[in-house]
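Fill-in record for TPR-like protein.
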Amino acid sequence: IGEIHPKTAATHQDIGIVQCRSGDYDQALRSLQMCLEIQEQVFGGYSPEIAITRSHLGHTIVERGHDGDDLLEHRGALQQYRKALVVREKCLGEDHLDVAASYQNIGQSLCKLGDFQGALAAYRESLSILESLLGENHADVAIAHSLLGNVLHEQGDFQGAMEEYSIALAIREEVFGKSHVATAESHTQIGQLLTDVQDYDEAETRHRKALRIRDTILGKESP
């Protein structure tokens, strides 16, 4: 096949993913960069494969940041996520699930960097795409509402956060039922929010609901 071939690039990517999961982040970045260089020679500047590789590069940079300068790493990851978004919009159009995923990646990095307004804008773009493609009652839409709630909570907009968490909970109960780990997660988020606004009785009620669900599904011995 030779060194400059899509399958060779894919093998470098697979190796990089394994290296990242094993904690060898520097070597993973080298493998993913090799994959990217081959893909750019084969496909040119724009292809869905290149966007996937840039997303993996971003994720790996974030993981490496846990061992060092987290803010610096998030800036590097954000650069990769934004490049992936440009490629995906050009190749796939603006209304595509992969484009929504890129906006979520961007939102997470912006949130870590303290750019909450930028994060909200990115998450809302993602939510809009997901709702248009999947409808309002979908598990991925619930995640998008939950992410919005997290940013609003971090900003101190407790009312806005409660609205987003409540929407996520309603969707999860509709999609998964009342006894599901995702539903429990929504109760936990609401409980944490209620603790911050000093509504301790209702916060305890929410946390106990989450605990009952987890005990039922995972067992009381689960960590």
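KEY FINDING: The CA atoms of residues 110 and 119 lie 5 Å apart.
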